[in-house]
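dumping this here before i forget
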Amino acid sequence: MVRPSSTSKTGLEPRTRTRVLLVDPQTIVRQGLHRILETDDAIEIVGETGDGRTAVEMTERLRPDVVVMDVTLPELNGIDATARIVERDKRVRVLILTSVSDDLAVRRGLRAGASGYLLKDSEGLELLKAVKAVARGESAFSPMVSQILLKDYVENEDGGALEDDLTLLTDREREVLQLVAEGKVNSQIAGVLSISVNTVETHRKRIMEKLDLHTTADLVRFAMRKHIVA
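structure:
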């Protein structure tokens, strides 16, 4: 739902504004994004948060048009959060804004349903254009990301695309993996996910079997390589 601005004194039709939710783990980054986006009267910042789980809840409650989302977020990473948001409301567009630029992260983000993938070295004007583009139902990519997508297309045509072993895990297993990598113990994970400690332990064992990992340190290193945690 797009909320119209108030009618102007000239009697012209009110102009619609693009409602944006900002999601980034760093407060100073969110403040910077807020300052950039608020320079355009056609954009309204409706909220902000620093973790993926809250981002999903706020999206359902605030119903923004665009969610500007980082990849590396606590509680629930930005890619899994994107998948949940898009699955629950196809109308919401997600623009990933991150410093993570490797091939698999880009592929995972777009597979999750993101409408755009912008790198944090982008200019402010590029961010403004990207937000407006995805709000219109278009796509927006940084030049480097476009090169990755072209390369990925060629590799797919040749049958040589990279495989992502994260696809071996279920959604719940990825959640458990992230929480383990963030240093939470089984009882804390059980509380966050509202499941039993025994169920958490079962998920941990399955994750390690599927990924051929043997220690908690292995899980943490794997999660860092996949940008699930920073």
